[in-house]
Specification:
By secondary structure, this protein is α/β, with parallel strands linked by helices. It folds into 3 domains: 2-88, Udp-n-acetylmuramoylalanyl-d-glutamate--2,6- Diaminopimelate Ligase, Chain: A, domain 1; 97-299, Hexapeptide repeat proteins (UDP N-Acetylglucosamine Acyltransferase, domain 1, 3 Solenoid); 308-334. Helix content is 13%, strand content 29%. Strands 8-11-14-17-20-25-28-31-34-37-39 form an 11-stranded parallel β-sheet, with no helix packed on it. A hairpin with a 2-residue loop joins strand 22 and strand 23 (189-192). The chain is flat and about 80 Å long.
Amino acid sequence: MWTLAEIAEKIGGLPYGDAAYTVESVGTLIAAKPEQLSFLSNSKYKKYLAETKAGIVIVHHSMISHVPNNAIAVDDPYVAYAKAASFLHRDKVVTQGIHPSASIDDSSHLDSSVSIAAQVVISAGVTLEKDVVIGPGCVLLEDVYIAARTRLVANVTVCSDVKIGQRVIIHPGVVIGADGFGIANDKGKWIKVPQLGAVTIGNDVEIGANTTIDRGAINDTIIADGVKLDNQIQIGHNVIIGENTVVAGCVGIAGSTTIGKNCLIGGGVGISGHLELAEGVQLTGMTMVTKSLTKSGAYSSGIPAESTQQWHRNVVRYRQMDKMAERIKALESK
């Protein structure tokens, strides 16, 4: 249980109402109960504020007069909510120790504080530092290194020679360090190009469920500190993602592309190989990137959904564009 005053102090906000009022969890404006905390960061949900049952609501300073009960005023309600939720809903305490069904090679190096769950496989030369948690069904192949307080949730596969930093969270189904898509055409026959690099992941990274990160062909694939990856992302061999970049779900990044720091990449984006994206680039959802982007800023492509009838008309026009361009050029020459 946390009081209004305690929460406001921890998130750097200004309390309004009963300083001793307590909440124990979080909820949405629509469904929250009196013992829960909620927040308003999107103006589309302002209509629910007047009738919310939430015991405490986090809002921007400009919205404080619209809250019907206890409130905390902040500069950024969403960030403040994230901080509050992190201590109202702490992760479950993990018991240290090794489950009897785990298979651990004698040459591995495991700190005494680690937690190894059921059906885990740890291969030769693996090193796990202080307070590492390996969830059920995970497989760590040869010479993997995982730094302190990193957690693999469940059924994660980490291939040989991968290095993972501190405080990393890796969600179920992730595969790190599988071979990249390296093939060469030898007189009409495809032959495999050996993938000799590995993957290096920095500190404070989070990797969503079923995301895959390929090992490098020669040098390592690199995911820098603070990167946040959503679910079902494909990262090709020798990709480099800069610090604090965020990538939403179902993005595909082809091999040898370098993405700068502090980029925002929306869902479903496709990025071709051997490109460079400058620091601070923002790609809206479903954007297709086929050339390097050397300046920061927002980029988009694709056509939003419209009626099928209108889409058919537009397709006809698209197919006529070359002829139209030739006619315009001819008219201009006259």
